[in-house]
Amino acid sequence: MTHVPPFRLPRGGRLIDRSDQLGFRFDGRHLRGLRGDTLASALLANGQMMMGRSFKYHRPRGPVASGAEEPNALLGLGQGGRFEPNQRATTTALVPGMVTRSQNCWPSLDADIGAVNDWLSPLLPAGFYYKTFIHPRPFWKHVFEPVIRRSAGLGKAPTDPDPDLYEQAYGFADVVVVGGGIAGLQAARDAAAGGGSVTVLEQSPHWGGRTPIDHAGGQDAIDALLTDLRAMPGVTLRRNCMATGLYDHGYLIAREALADHDPNQGIPRQRLWRIRAGRVITATGALERPLSFACNDVPGVMLASAMRDFIDLHGVAPGQRIVVVTNNDDAYRTALIAADAGLDVAAIVDARPQATGDLPQAVRDRGIEVLTGSAIAKVKGRRHVEAVAICDQDGEGKITRTVECDAVAMSGGWSPVVHLYSHCGGKLTWDDAQALFRPDPDRPPLGADGQGIAQAVGAANGDLCCAGDLERPEGATMPVWVMPARAPHKLRAKMWLDYQNDVKVTDVELAAREGYASVEHTKRYTTLGMATDQGKLSNINGLAVLSGALDQPIPATGTTTFRPPYTPLTLATIAADARGEAFQPLRKTPMHGWHEAKGASWEPVGHWRRPYAYPQGAEDREAAVAREILAVRKGVGTLDASTLGKIVVKGPDAGRFMDMMYTNMMSTLKVGRCRYGLMCNENGFLMDDGVVARLSDDTWLCHTTTGGADRIHAHMEDWLQCEWWDWKVFTANLTEQYAQIAVAGPQARTLLERLNGSIDLSADALPFMAWAEGDLAGIPARIFRISFSGELSFEIAVPAARGLELWEKLHDAGADLGITPYGTEAMHVMRAEKGFIMIGDETDGTIIPQDLGLDWAISKKKADYIGKRAQRRLHMVDGTRWKLVGLQSLDGQVLPDGAYAATDQVNANGQRVTEGRVTSSYRSPTLDRPVAMGLVRHGPARMGQVLEFPMPSGAVMKARIVDPVFYDKEGSRLNG
Amino acid sequence: MLILTCPHCGIQAEETELHNGGEAHLKRVGPDGSDEEFEGYMFARRNPRGVHLERWRHAYGCGKWFIAARCTVTLQVFGTYAAQTTTPPDHIVQAVRAARPDWNPTEEGASE
Amino acid sequence: MAEHLARISPVTDLGMIALRGDLAAIADAAGMAAPDRTGIATDGPRSLAWMSPDEALLILPAPQTPEAVEALTLALDGQHALVADVSDARAVFDVIGPGAADVIAKLAPVDAAAMPQGHLRRTRMAQVATAIWRIEGGFRVIGFRSTGDYLGLILRNAAIAGSGLAPR
Amino acid sequence: MPDTARSGRYSVFAIAREALRQHKGWNRAWASPEPRDRYKVIVVGAGGHGLATAYYLGKNFGITDVAVLDKGWLGGGNTGRNTTIIRSNYLQDPSAAIYDKALKLYEGLSQDLNYNVMFSPRGLIMLAQTEHEVRGYKRTVYANNLQGVSTEWIDAQRLKELVPIINIDGPRYPVLGGLYQERGGTARHDAVAWGYARACSDMGMHIIQNCEVTGVETEGGQVRAVNTSKGRIGCEKLAMVVAGHSSQLAEMAGFRLPIESVALQALVSEPIKPCMDVVVMANTVHGYLSQSDKGEMVIGGGTDHFNNFTQRGSWHHVEETVRALVETFPMIGRLKMLRQWGGIVDMTGDRSPILSTTPVGGVFVNCGWGTGGFKAIPGSGWAMAELVAKGRPGPLAADFGLDRFREGRFIDESVAAGVAH
């Protein structure tokens, strides 16, 4: 044999196809693997044992596991937008053309500067940073932290957006079985036999879990089960689907890989399943535990089961001469498989005083030496295993002999995978006989009915020797938490618990000594179990060491909380389809396309887009707004008001209800008339405003703000359903049924009269605050004579499907009148010129109508309305509230929106005492000077006084308190 | 992800189809109430660790409000019922008491 | 390339009338059988859907709508009821094809494959409110007019060829 | 274990010394005493706020006859499960005052406590993505200027320079600018609790973990003692500082609070090399993002909307938050969520905290910080210590009394930013 291990074995490998070679790259080198390889097995087959560097000390790292628990073999995968850091090599299928890079090393994996930390490790024990870098104070920000930050992280940050597709799907099943090993498949068969729907989720591409590897006849048993299950109705078998989390009420989240690393199929890369499970059976198996002996992190030391997997599944030899170290019988299987593959098994180091079961006997029969009561004192070698020093387990590490080898297979026993069971409240129980935590069947996670919703089976339930009918007796595992048992500090300081985060036995012991004795304290102080594997390998060993240090039994120490997801879940998979255009629904009015074609500059309002203005040519937004305003003031303009809420309220008790909803008296409104109304919440604050029209004796139409339609409709239904359910009132939100167009300006009537309608638009027939129904330009329409601009104005509501038609007809008919579409900003400015308040500008959720001088809109006659009681509270009536006024800047500059007026006093907290603020402020194109409104303490009583507005620059702007109506105070224009 | 059955339409809706409206059976205090009564109505909340009677709207469904009796610790749902009532109906009380024999809806439901 | 899971086509010739009141009286006025709870009863070109305990939706050919609104208003006159034409407030899509249930299952928290005929499910699809029921060869989905483009987009995204939900 | 152990001074020299003797010489960071039968002050809740309250009682008022009780392990509530954001650019005067006090104390906290809490003033930006937000944040700048709180408005270009990974031209909500507080940042959350605990213990105070309060004993409207899982413990004054359980403790003392408990969701990604030096909050789309010193992207979002005491992560708010952040920071799409969890937060009627006397004499309550608790810890402890020591609020706490709900005198921060993180 001329190969230097690791290498591909000449025979074997149940998953690989030796006829299909796949090229890939690692750190720039072109390598070849086989179809069926994982990235890890392909790298091993190419002789690449070292695959990365640890987080803190930059120690060389090779794969220690073969599955989802792998902490070391993490690679940067892919390029451009498909680059993905920290990709686990042991669970990533090899795809032709893959580009991979090692992580956390510079300049290269072999020559890494950061490895200096390893030499400094005595100075860097657990929590060292809490004890230093304290003085001098500026050094943390400017020196220490930047250095620490630079060393943060494992993989590189991606830079480009991910171009792949993702999606979600909703699933429903009476029973979901998680895990497609023998226990899961049997449980699924049993469940399906009782009828109902059963879904089986298997994280890997293969059914059977460990059974085909570990048991002669295992594959046949699995195949038979699969045959049965496929014939059963209601059974769904889904591979490549990782159940990542179990949430409240049996909601199971799973990630199905559809086209991972093969984006060329044009289908979503991953699919996130949201499954409502009646019951969940966790058949998630168990994870093998490492053993804590000195230098157990040297590349070439791996879990016995992982070594078995690489040999059996991929035909890869992790070493040529192997030492197995164990505290149980199962690891002997690795020796047998290795020997079968033609590899040299130098010795079995068994910590137990004796090993007499079938498996040890089978090993001895091969002539392999079994050293019982023994331990590894130390692994020799730095970048790869060179030898192991053997000692007695029950000792302090005195070396009895040295065995040369190039790989170590270790097994510290097994821990059931209890994550899903624990995610939403299931509790664990300590099984002292087997030294493991397993699900406590008496304290399962509960479903909506208060009954247990999850059940563990097979190895996940601690039944380690049981593989269905293939049960095979094994000798007992002997708990071994430190090897050798009385190892001195020097050895303990080299025993890794958490490989990725470089947490060692001595770190946990230090934490315990310093009083970080709660398991959560220890975890956080040492970072044990906080790496990307979330402690799958390290948690139990760490717990045991902590318990030892605290001299208490393991169950007294307890476990840390298992949080979802079981394995890291790609963020794009969570976001799924909701990206780009589908990120959020965009609401469009019937005239949206017209606005867009005319170059509207958009403003998002809730999920709507409204035209802010329509800039023409080189015009900027400000110029466009000014032009639009002047066009309305002098001629006629149109505003798309379709987004305003339109809620119909109807019924015998509708008047009474309207009086409760609005501060005004709405029950007395005459049919055919409109009234501006205010709506408060029960806390007294103004929440919405709008024009109410009485449509008939028992019907009112309420207009709301753009953002208010759904909210106000829900508010009304809330009161109707939950407080006054005996009142006879129906509501309907008809916002989207109608397109609404405001036609405003001195020429508005002229324009509308050209459209040949059935409605008399004269001031006598349709005065200000009246409405009429009929048709306009052949379209059924309701016309409201209302105005938010201060001009003669009509708002026309037509069925939404005909909104664009009317809009275009208006523009055709008004071309010679200079008809101009105007946007939200022109509307804002025009209403400010008129001193009209705007919900969201003058109000912010803390304003009551009385603050805004709207007392006239608050009925004094009504016994009650929503918010009335609240408005009587001390702070609402104590006279110190800021009230609405107009503000006229003294220097002719526009006051900044939001600026505060300050007195020269300072409060007890050293803050300048304020006495008002600007709520709306614009340069008025109509008046060619600034106009502003604001809220000022005792404002209306202080007309003519000058306020000072300090600017962050240090300058002070001054403004005089004036009447808030700047334009057409008499209202002759809007009444025209 | 809570799953609640809307008593109006019988649909088992998930949380994303629903809207929570806080503590149920609050008695509105109108213009005649004292400051203390009004404060109690607006703000003092039972917020129990245990059985909570709470309002939900089937917002993405029939649009109707209903009330759920739910434990805030185990998230067990004892039942749901239409919001058009001032007290929990008998079958709900029985369902809660089956699991929590000491539970007293009038005492627990009262706002002081 | 495989076929899309389903064909997504806008339906524009439907009228819809929202009816609130006593459901039996509404059905009477509409001349239809009253739908069961969450049911949708179809009679020739018209369907009457149960929307809530006091709300129904009459779906009918668009040209018949104004007349039907008038007739219903008249028939329910004197009762506590509300009749509103909501035809223009809606966006409707048909999802037709062998993978139609998969398309629905990707967007709505609903067991689409198990949804019975004659049942109307009001729910959410991604981020918008919809109502869904079975029609010949697939499903009909009603959403709101303003978000019709969004609804069409997410339906088409969910119907990408080769993305069926069957295990692979 | 003697209950008067002192931890010893931390420094780089101490580390070097200990390195030579295998780190065997470190003392316990805090003692683990059995409770005495009475204390002058009992603080319930050994989270950041409770421990800070005790610390400033000792430091500012010389009161060290103090026990801090916790039903679990210290720092195990919201202190240990938040997203560690620190800022003080609040709109309303009372909020700005107490949060800025907290920020100023954070700036010197490592030195004050001789424990490196890794306060990292890396800057914090709140994105403005609608005209409404622009207005709200500009208003905040003017208010902060008068409050003595440093903050500034920055335009989209400057923002892009500070946060290169952001997509300012997002098709849906383009970034229009942001509210930038250069002094804002993050700190190591556990270290804040541990540092205060060690300092309190060094002053001779008792931190008693795994000691659950089961009842409050009063006499003539005055507190006398608390009953606990470790027996009855007498006290003159009782400070309740138990976010997430405030209603339950108040009920034991016989009063009700304007509080509802809901779960706030958070998650972290796998660690990656540094790519974002600033904390960014995007309130329009509901998500915020920072990168920890370990390299994880720390992500927070909204709260669940129902009363809940489970401290578990739930799903759909995480989904909303993640899609918001993937839209805003497109490069994070291929990162992976490593861990998600929930913390139970107190939500008050106006979403601002309560630091108040109560209907029971000698009982004081500090609660209701909602989603803003961590950043307030030192200021909250400072103000609470004053309240407890003097029996009446000082200027920092004056506006946060319970009476404000009766009077309608709310402190509403949602005015400027939608959510008050």
Description:
The complex is a heterotetramer of chains A (976), B (112), C (168) and D (421). With 976 residues, chain A is α+β, with helices and mostly antiparallel strands. Chain A has 25 helices and 50 strands. The model of chain A has no long low-confidence stretch (mean pLDDT 95). Chain B has 112 residues and is an alpha+beta fold. In chain B, a hairpin with a 6-residue loop joins strand 1 (3-5) and strand 2. Chain D is an alpha/beta fold. Chain D folds into 2 domains: 33-83 and 189-258 and 350-417, FAD/NAD(P)-binding domain; 122-184 and 260-348, 2-Layer Sandwich (D-Amino Acid Oxidase, Chain A, domain 2). Chain D is built from 12 helices and 18 strands. In chain D, the strands form 3 sheets. In chain D, strands 1, 2, 8, 9, 10, 11, 17 and 18 form an 8-stranded mixed sheet that branches. Chain D has an 8-stranded mixed sheet with strand order 5-6-4-13-14-15-12-16. A two-stranded antiparallel ribbon of chain D has the order 3-7. The model of chain D has no long low-confidence stretch (mean pLDDT 94).
List the helices and strands and how they pair.
The complex is a heterotetramer of chains A (976), B (112), C (168) and D (421).
Chain A: E1 7-8, E2 17-26, E3 29-35, H1 39-45, E4 52-53, E5 60-61, E6 74-77, E7 84-88, E8 98-101, H2 116-119, H3 128-131, H4 137-150, E9 166-178, H5 182-193, E10 198-201, H6 211-214, H7 218-230, E11 235-238, E12 241-247, E13 251-257, E14 270-282, E15 286-288, E16 301-303, H8 304-314, E17 316-317, E18 321-326, H9 332-340, E19 344-350, H10 358-365, E20 370-372, E21 374-380, E22 387-392, E23 399-404, E24 407-411, E25 414-416, H11 419-423, E26 428-431, E27 436-439, E28 454-456, H12 489-492, E29 496-498, E30 503-504, H13 505-513, H14 519-526, H15 539-550, H16 554-557, E31 569-570, H17 571-575, H18 592-597, E32 601-605, E33 608-613, H19 621-634, E34 637-640, E35 645-650, H20 654-661, E36 674-680, E37 686-696, E38 699-704, H21 709-722, E39 730-733, E40 738-744, H22 748-753, E41 771-776, E42 779-784, E43 793-799, H23 803-813, E44 820-821, H24 824-833, H25 874-877, E45 882-889, E46 900-906, E47 912-924, E48 929-937, E49 946-950, E50 956-962
Parallel strand pairs in A: 2-8, 9-10, 9-14, 10-11, 14-28, 16-24, 18-19, 18-24, 19-20, 34-44
Antiparallel strand pairs in A: 1-17, 2-3, 4-5, 6-7, 6-8, 12-13, 13-14, 15-25, 21-22, 22-23, 26-27, 29-30, 32-33, 34-40, 35-38, 35-39, 36-37, 37-38, 40-43, 41-42, 42-43, 45-48, 45-50, 46-47, 47-48, 49-50
Chain B: E1 3-5, E2 12-14, E3 19-23, H1 35-42, E4 51-57, E5 65-71, E6 77-82, H2 90-99, H3 105-109
Antiparallel strand pairs in B: 1-2, 3-4, 4-5, 5-6
Chain C: E1 7-11, E2 14-20, H1 23-30, E3 40-43, E4 46-52, E5 55-61, H2 65-75, E6 82-85, E7 90-96, H3 100-107, E8 121-125, E9 128-135, E10 138-144, H4 148-158
Antiparallel strand pairs in C: 1-7, 2-5, 2-6, 3-4, 4-5, 7-10, 8-9, 9-10
